[in-house]
Amino acid sequence: MRTKDRIKSQDKHILNLAEIVGGTRSILYQKEDLVAYDCDGFTIHKHLPKAVVFPKNTQEVAEIVKYCSENNLPFLARGAGTGLSGGAIPLNGEIIISMVRMKKLISVDLENRRAVVEPGFVNLKLTNSISDKGYYYAPDPSSQYCCTIGGNVAENAGGAHCLKYGVTTNHILGLEVVMPNGEIVEIGKDGIPDAPGYDLLGLITGSEGTLGIVTKITVRVLKNPEGKQTVLAYFDRVEDGSQAVSDIISAGIVPAALEMMDKTAIEGVEAAAFPVGHPKDIEAVLLIEVDGIAAGIEEQIDQILEVCRKRNVREVRAAGSEEERARWWANRKTGFGAMGAISPDYLVQDGVIPRSKLPDVLSRINQISSESGLRIANIFHAGDGNLHPLVLFDARIPGESEKALEAGSQCLKVCADVGGTITGEHGVGIEKREEMRFVFTEEEIAAQTDIREVFNPHNLLNAGKLFPSPGRCAEVKKEMKAQAIS
Amino acid sequence: MSVRELDLKQEPPCTSGLGNYLWSDPPDEKKWADCVHCGMCLESCPTYEQTGQEQHSPRGRVHLIKSVAEGKLQVNEQFMDPVFQCLDCRACTTACPADVDVGGLIEEARGQIRQAMPLTGVKGAISKFFLHDLFPHQNRLNTLGGLLKFYQKSGMQKAVRKTKLINIMPKHLVDMESIMPEVKEPVKKKYQDVKVIKAKGETKQEVAMLTGCVMDVMFSDINESTINVLTRNGNDVVIPQSQTCCGALHVHAGDRDMGRKLAKQNMEAFKDFDKVIVNAAGCGCMMKEYAELFKEDPELHAKAEEFSEKVEDISKFLHDTGYEKPKAEMNTRITYHDACHLAHGQGIRQQPRDILLDIPGVDMVHMPNSDRCCGSAGIYNITNPEMANAVLESKMENVPDDVEMISMGNPGCMLQMAMGVQKYGRNQKIVHTVQLLDWAYQKEDGVKEGKE
């Protein structure tokens, strides 16, 4: 904390922005500090922002936005910077508006099952603040220990338990948004979301920070399920594991979560900080959690054990204690970061496929892996067909980043080809802009950018994300991608 | 930190460097290769909690340290700020899914910074006084202890406080003065002529004990308690007189050469023993990491690794080798604070709690976020008082109201938490885990209870 420092910049924009946020502690503008903001959880593209500002309230956000808009300065909002598609990377040297100091839990209204938070409030903290009263916030992305709810809204984040409870958009009741011209609007006033007219909440949620900056969020909170239990199952063949997933759903069980990891992923999590002792020679591990009324749980668990046995499971058992259950989940939830233990860099993809295509898609991903010479680990929300192929590479080896991007893109192509799509919960960001063409035509993309123009007419807010640049031929795009990497 | 860059630049020697790290012993590339920038460390970091800024987060610091190696940044004042603002509490290492050794990287980067920009002026003089002229010299520390004792006993302390003479000191030093424990005779000096302090009853084994530099002056009664507890449980205790400061404060400050010097001296002093018992988490953690200092010297590296195996915290040692459960009722409500360098640094969490729970009548109340740093962090509370106070404030918010004592295993934390208690109008007594055990034994033996 450098209290006595003065702003050491001659840049009038820096000085004016510092004025808005109230001094040196709330603005970063020197290179050594800015380097820490040159990427988020997606590390392949890097670009320095012009400055980072830390507003304390909606009013300051509005003033910053107004200033940027009037002075033609590109800008974007950033939460904890854990996004995996590059949504918070300042591609155009943006002014980054960091929302992390707006981190209050404004109010909790358990009677009406809702809570109001500022965007910088950390996801898991909401559950922690209300768990003693028997309530929780359902969307649980793996990064929930540190990601912000504002970021969750921007990306429409999912998580392991979205199979039963839905993704972020299903839990948002109201938003306060600063529009790209600095105007403050409220959508879904007093937590009553179903206003007549178009579903604006749905439009803003998942817009990846391209339509406005969310400054206050009303979320739905849920009563803790009376009971929950988790089953762990090891399979010698991926096909058996996948088939078990389908069988469980067909049996009419709706698990709270149904997760799968393949052999390479298991190698990663076992080499990292939260190993649980999964055997090294199995092809797939399933984590299946059921929750709900205590009376029904045991029966569902028995059913699940039975299904797994029918599908040649090597070993299957329910957690013996809450501590064991927590260990299994910590192992799974830190899975992405754990890849650091077996590879210097990774690229995580986020495809969605029909569940029945799982064995087929996995074998095609294996093929991509052997063709590219890069290892690909698979961690996925098997229950809803949300696949996370993790392409392992070493950015220090020339050409390997490009190869990884190419392999990732091919994985998404496979997903799109079998009738799925290119993102389930991580967003498009920078990473999957071009892949939008796998699922949308030029016209469909143009229709969406037309919507953006209504909100963000000068495209100063988070430009260059979510959509491919229009009408360029594929070769040029490839070249641009290569340039962006180098 | 307003020394001009021109004053600072020294000519780098022509040794192996890495990118813009020009000196030997640069940050270890392998350590950051594990970081995939996932951000799971963010919420564990006290300085990120306070600032919300990436460069003050573990992932941000790793990113900056890596950027210097890649030649994107220079080792300069602006780079120094995030690297020295780190408390080195290691909470990020616990949180990290890939076990990235952030603490190790920070210490290596500090080593580079201190060589590129040696401290000059007042700050340099103060640092040199503490790190070179004071801590490594037990006799000087003892003299200082004697002066403190005189200050406390002679009525001077009262006079200074009464006449408001104390107000000429900076605020954070005033706070520290007010909680200074009563200085007693250092254990190392007391037992200088005793070769072996014999176990009471049958001897199970012989152990050596690190008395520590600050510990032995400020908290010699804890050293005394450690000896009592060890001898009561069948251990002969030896206090090698040639031992010195562990060097943690030096390594934290980037003075790795001095750290190496002290490490070598300690490795020599303790070479004839199978166990080196430590009652200060910070010292224990440092001594378990001596090998880090000798990465470029395979012979010493191997020797250091062997040495580190022998180093053990008192709570783990008692837990693993067994101890007599005290019989006297202590009848007190306590809470436990995890010292960073015990919990995050050495993975010791349950053992001290088990010991405390074995004392009859001890009612343990859970402290939320008990493994959050208190802001002491060696001498961080002297060098970075503003941040240390902010971290302390958030620590104190978690201390339960209705407890009489806060137990912990590190002298730095004890001073800091005592300051917290005083500053926020609380009334808890700060104790070391072995002290409480010792008092229970003494009560059982009908001896007047410890400090009471």
Briefly, what is this?
Chain A is an alpha+beta fold. Helices cover 35% and strands 20% of the residues of chain A. The two termini of chain A are 35 Å apart.
Q: Can you put this structure into words, describing what you see?
A:
Chain B: It is an enzyme of class 1 (oxidoreductase). Chain B: GO terms for molecular function: 4 iron, 4 sulfur cluster binding; glycolate dehydrogenase activity; metal ion binding. Chain B: Residues 26-55, 76-100 form the 4Fe-4S ferredoxin-type domain. Chain B: InterPro entries: 4Fe4S_Fe-S-bd (IPR017896), 4Fe4S_Fe_S_CS (IPR017900), Cys_rich_dom (IPR004017), Glc_ox_4Fe-4S (IPR012257), Helical_ferredxn (IPR009051). Chain B: Component of a complex that catalyzes the oxidation of glycolate to glyoxylate. The complex is a heterodimer of chains A (486) and B (452). Chain A folds into four domains: 12-98, Uridine Diphospho-n-acetylenolpyruvylglucosamine Reductase, domain 2; 105-223, Uridine Diphospho-n-acetylenolpyruvylglucosamine Reductase, domain 3; 226-333, Alpha-Beta Plaits; 343-486, Alpha-Beta Plaits (2-Layer Sandwich), CATH 3.30.70. In chain A, 35% of the residues lie in helices and 20% in strands. Residues 472-476 of chain A have low confidence and may be disordered. Chain A contains 17 helices and 19 strands. Chain A has 486 residues and is of the alpha+beta class. Chain A starts with 11 loop residues before the first helix and ends with a helix. The longest helix of chain A has 18 residues, at 400-417. The radius of gyration of chain A is 23 Å and the shape is globular. With 452 residues, chain B is an alpha/beta fold. Chain B folds into four domains: 5-116, Fumarate Reductase Iron-sulfur Protein, Chain B, domain 2 (Orthogonal Bundle), CATH 1.10.1060; 121-179, no CATH class; 187-319, Glutathione S-transferase Yfyf (Class Pi), Chain A, domain 2, CATH 1.20.1050; 326-444, Rossmann fold (3-Layer(aba) Sandwich), CATH 3.40.50. Chain B is 51% helix and 7% strand. In chain B, helix 24 (411-423) links the parallel strand 7 and strand 8. The longest helix of chain B has 16 residues, at 138-153. Chain B is globular. The model of chain B is unreliable at 1-14 and 448-452 (pLDDT under 50).
